[in-house]
């Protein structure tokens, strides 16, 4: 997946103060892990967040969020969020929502 270096830099800055965060090159772009579990990523013009199936309806009700469909199949518990919905406090809000789910997973 191609990515936007500017969005990757924004994500790095937003995650810089958090413990347990690692960055990995994946799918032609970058993903960030929390304790070894995928938390979020970037593509061109949008962010990806792993929010879990229980928080999916709440996430999809927020502006700019759509489900991720990969090879014709919906990836439950993952959403794309338009870059415009992540301006200001928006990016931190999405990171918090994703961390609520990913933080419950056992470390890898």
Please outline what is shown here.
With 108 residues, the chain is an alpha+beta fold.
Structural class: alpha+beta
Quote the distance from N terminus to C terminus. Answer: 24 Å
Give the radius of gyration: 13 Å
Overall body shape: globular
Proportion of helical residues: 25-40%
| Count of alpha/pi helices | 3
Please report the first level of CATH classification, the CATH class: Alpha Beta
Strand segment count: 6
Largest sheet: 6 strands, antiparallel
Tell me what the structure shows.
- By secondary structure, the protein is an alpha+beta fold.
- It has one domain (5-102): Aspartate Aminotransferase, domain 1 (Alpha-Beta Complex).
- 27% of the residues lie in helices and 37% in strands.
- The chain is built from three helices and six strands; from the N terminus they run αββββαββα.
- It has helices spanning 5-15, 56-60, 90-102, and strands at residues 21-26, 29-34, 37-43, 46-50, 65-70, 73-82.
- The protein has a six-stranded antiparallel sheet.
- A hairpin with a 2-residue loop joins β2 (29-34) and β3.
- The longest helix is centred in the C-terminal third of the chain and has 13 residues, at 90-102.
- The chain is globular and about 30 Å long.
- The protein starts with a helix and ends in a 6-residue tail after the last helix.
- The mean pLDDT is 94.
Sequence-ordered SSE layout with sheet pairings:
Layout: H1 5-15, E1 21-26, E2 29-34, E3 37-43, E4 46-50, H2 56-60, E5 65-70, E6 73-82, H3 90-102
Antiparallel strand pairs: 1-2, 2-3, 3-4, 4-6, 5-6
